[in-house]
Amino acid sequence: MMDFIKSLRHPLHCEHCEGISEVEIPRHHPSYEITQRCNLDCIFCYSRVAKVEPGYYGDLRPKAITISQFGEPLVAGESEVIRIAKTLREIFGNVRLDLQTNGVLLTEKICREFDIVMISLDAGSREGYLRITKRDFFDRVVENIRMSSGITYTVVRTVFLPGVNDAELKGIAEIAGCAEELFLQPVSLYRENRELLERIDVERAESIGEFLKTAEMLSELAEVRIPGCFIFNLKRALKTFTLEEVMLFHRNAFAEKPRIEREWRFRV
Q1: CA-based nearest residue to 40, from 117, 118, 138
Q2: Nearest residue to 161 via CA among 130, 127, 125, 199
């Protein structure tokens, strides 16, 4: 396990985020929110319990911008997403643009506008995908992961949901083999999301050891990355505690209702 931890690299998406540095109160890099609408109904989605105004959030000298952190941006349409991406480049110049999407409506034209395309996939089978998203788009998303991987830097973004998608993870990793990264993230739990709380194994969701063992196992099948802030705090803990002690640690998976801390600036 220690060799795996030493080899861990943070996702490219985490570059320029203060969470991988010694900043006392780190901020994520800026985002542009297009819509909170979505064509899926995922059981863990935090957009269900938050409201966000469309527009640009963050400082005015960004190195990277994410489209977007709430909702599915591509439901706004290909031309609108491309227009916003091009406008942001006109405003900010040589800025890295990251797209966060469920991949259902992804096109080649959209992929060519972004430096990183992050595609959410939390199941490795059609049946598992239906259970988690309540929609039948699994085959289309898998095909779009392959398509995107041939065009731009592509990340398969997976939320670790113990008790819900354990049996799906190896399948996801096999699909992600064509992508640059499999970005495995621990789940955040919200008390308003009763459907997920009824199904998830909270004990395992909060276990640092469980998360690390899962990441190590999947690394045999794909280029696994975990959040940069997680790696930063993990390595800091290992300066004080033994690996055996850290593997017994638990995090508090319950979070406050999500909101954007960065300042809203404008809408294009």
Answers
A1: 138
A2: 199
What CATH architecture does domain 2-18+27-258 belong to? Alpha-Beta Barrel (3.20)
Say if CB 214 and CB 160 are below 8 A apart. Answer: yes
Query: For the chain, give me the number of helices (H) and strands (E)?
Result: 11, 9
- Looking at residue 232, its amino acid is F
Confidence of residue 195 (pLDDT cuts 50, 70, 90): confident
Taking residues 6-27, report their average pLDDT.
Answer: 86
d(CA 129, CA 111): 23
Domain segments of the chain as ranges: 2-18+27-258
Task: Provide the CB-side half-sphere exposure for 65 (13 A, CA).
Answer: 27
pLDDT by residue (tens digit) across 114-172? 999 999 999 999 999 999 999 999 999 999 999 999 999 999 999 999 999 999 999 99
| More confident of the two residues 198 and 244 | 244
- Residue 120 three-state SS: strand
Q: Which two tokens stand for residue 43?
A: 């059981």
Angle CA 28–34–37, to nearest 5:
110
For residues 247 and 208, the answer to whether their CB atoms sit within 8 Å is yes
**CA separation for the pair 180, 33 (Å, rounded):** 25
